[in-house]
Amino acid sequence: MRLARSSLLRHLRMFCVCARSLSFKSAAQILHLTPSAISHQIRELEDQLGVQLFVRRTRALELTPVGRSLLAEVEPLLLAVEEAVARISADPERKSVNVAMPPFFASELVIPRLSSLYAANPGIAVQLDTHDAMPRDHSSGADISVIIAESPARGLESHELFPLRLVGACSLEIRARLDQLGSVALSQVPVVVHRMLPGVWDQWAAESGFAPPPPRNVIELDNMFAVTRAAERGVGVALVPSIVSQSWFQSGALARASDVEITTGEKYFVVWRAEDIGRPALSAIRDWAIAEFIHA
């Protein structure tokens, strides 16, 4: 089977999205397709190339050495094509800016503050992209991204906002149970964690004076809003980002399960491409984000 040129470009772009998210499900959300459609088209690409690009595991994908090599060569070329088209077709004075960020960061920190951005910059238009639950890299389709990483990728301009610190959160009823059960509480009270942060529980438990939870007692969810809502509804104790979740604690919707906050080594960064900063609207959003969140 030989793919037409237009189909090959589409399959290669799909491959890059899958390679960055390492999940057909996440790629499907970004591309507005079904996971089965993504999987089928990646198989078509592998058949055309005669190589295996991914190792398909139960819960995630893993790039093969050939897949890593293809990503390194193809992604910059596709990005250059997108940028060339944007330069030709876009109004140089346009004020619309696409901003990618984690959905929980958007709902808890950005959306409540957007009025201040619009008040200072009349006519600016922000398009929020929140498909990636925990973005590690600058989105190829975004002008600005908020990412969670130890450090941004090379070749990007960036500004550190604040570290990712996690705190145990629960309902008042669960907090009372923790006090009653003491050090063995996590063997009886479920714990809820984002699936991309599975290893942090043991550290938090040890520093909080609890025995580590047994694996059967750990509930993994795929987005931080669901993790936080589970804690609010009394499902168990959840590890949530302390700064992003402040309004939940201030309103009384959540209580701290302990005074311990742990760091993961990762931080929130706002990142952008150096060649894009000449756009006034992009600069305005970057400066606004830094001013609003660097001292959060």
Outline of the structure:
Helix content is 43%, strand content 23%. The radius of gyration is 21 Å and the shape is globular.
Strand order of the largest sheet: 4-3-5-10-6-9-7-8
Q: Give the beta-strand count.
A: 10
What value does the average pLDDT take? 87
Radius of gyration: 21 Å
Low-confidence stretches: none
List keywords for this structure.
single chain, 296 residues, alpha/beta, eight-stranded mixed β-sheet, two-stranded antiparallel ribbon, globular
Note down, in words, how this protein is organized.
This protein has 296 residues and is of the alpha/beta class. Helix content is 43%, strand content 23%. The chain contains 11 helices and 10 strands. Strands 4-3-5-10-6-9-7-8 form an 8-stranded mixed β-sheet, sandwiched between helices. A two-stranded antiparallel ribbon has the order 1-2. Helix 1 packs across helix 2, helix 1 packs across helix 4 and helix 2 (24-31) crosses helix 3. The protein is globular, with a radius of gyration of 21 Å.
Write the layout of secondary structure elements.
Layout (H helix, E strand, L loop, with lengths): L4 H17 L2 H8 L3 H15 L4 E3 L4 E3 L1 H25 L6 E5 L2 H8 L3 H7 L4 E5 L14 E6 L7 E14 L1 H10 L9 E4 L5 H9 L9 E4 L2 H9 L4 E5 L4 H6 L3 E18 L7 H14 L3
Parallel strand pairs: 3-4, 3-5, 7-8, 7-9
Antiparallel strand pairs: 1-2, 5-10, 6-9, 6-10
Helix pairs in contact: 1-2, 1-3, 1-4, 2-3
